[in-house]
Structures are given as structure tokens and as C-alpha cells.
Amino acid sequence: MGPGSGLVRVGVIDSVRSGTAYERLGECALDVMALVPSLAHVNLTLLHEYEVMLVGCAPEDLDEASFQTQLLRVARAVPAVAITPGGVGATTAARIGFHGFIAREVGPEALTRTVTAVAHGEVAFPRATLAALLQMLSFLPLPRSEAPTSLTPRQQQIVDLIAQGATDREIAARLRISESTAHKHVQNALRRSKTKTRSQLVAVARHSAGV
């Protein structure tokens, strides 16, 4: 379909041989622009055409150094979502650079929602995974030279909800504001805290609060 279709433009890395293929891809409300058998086959010069890369992989792939190196080459240019059999490996996927994660067994609607959320700048992982990662990050020391400006009370509310795994839409519902306003609050908090990702934002906010 391409630009103008209104659907998220997706490049798909889906290996039938490794048993990671998503057989219902044709039922998803996504504009699938390319289908390649592995990360090594991705044409880096064409990555600007995609909004998200959907990467089918086996859980053991996530621990391989070569896979992680190839992923970083792709993820620097376009956000990537991992899809594994049984939904195994979410924490590792988040740690090595994926922006989202989903089990191969989910329905087309769930896969479409996850990919769309990532295309809109959100991270999409199970809540338990986000909670575990944020807990680990909260113990990392913050260099004095990067000490952030204190957040406003409203921004702190936003951070508390992000720490629970809330998306912009869920933040908006909880605070009874529009989704665009919620997104603006998140972006302002990122700038004010001198961070680039939501997980960094939560870690820095907790560090500043002495949590």
C-alpha cells in the first residue's frame, strides 16, 4: 500500500525455518512492505521506508551476540518489535534494544495494537517486564553532571503512572485529560529530566526522590 494508506508501514523479519513465523500476518491492519528471513538480510538503506520492524525470533536468538549486533544496526534507524513463540524472552528483548514484545500466539488485533503503539513512540512490553526493568534502573547511579531539574507535581504523577506500565492513552484516562495532553506531559518530563526514554525518566525521577 505504502504512504497514504493510513496503516503503519512495517518491515517483517519472519523465519519459517526457525518456527517463528506469524501465520496470520495477512489479517493484521498493517502495511507490510517487506518480508525477509533474518536480520542479516535487512537492506539498511531502505529502513527509512518503515515505521516499525517486526522481528520473529526464537527466545535463544535474543542471547546471541551476533543477533544483538544485527538488531542494533536496525534499531538505530527504526523501532523494532520482537515476536517469539510462547512469549518467552520479554525482559531480554527490552534489555538488548527492542521497543516492543509480543507472543506469536496472539491474535491479529493485539499484534496490530502493539506495532501501532511502537510506531507512535511508545514502548510495548508486558507490565511485569517493565516493572522489573524499572526496578533495576532505579539502582543505577546518576552522574552529578547529569542531575535533572525537579519535575512538576503533574509530571511526577505522569512518572508514577509510567512506572506502572501505563501508555499515553491509559495516563489520559486516569488523569481525565486528552491523550495528546498526556503525550505532551510525557515529552515535557523527558526534556526536564534530560532523559530520552520512559524507563530512563522513571529511573532518574526515583533517584532524585531518593527512592
Describe this structure in words.
With 211 residues, the chain is of the alpha/beta class. The protein folds into two domains: 9-124, Response regulator (Rossmann fold, 3-Layer(aba) Sandwich); 132-209, Rossmann fold. The protein has eight helices and five strands. The chain has a five-stranded parallel β-sheet, sandwiched between helices. Helix 2 (90-96) packs across helix 4, helix 6 packs across helix 7 (179-193) and helix 7 packs across helix 8. The longest helix is centred in the last third of the chain and has 15 residues, at 179-193. The chain starts with 8 loop residues before the first strand and ends with a helix. The model has no long low-confidence stretch (mean pLDDT 82).
Keywords:
5-stranded parallel beta sheet, 2 domains, single chain, alpha/beta, 8 helices, Rossmann fold, 5 strands, 211 residues, 12% strand
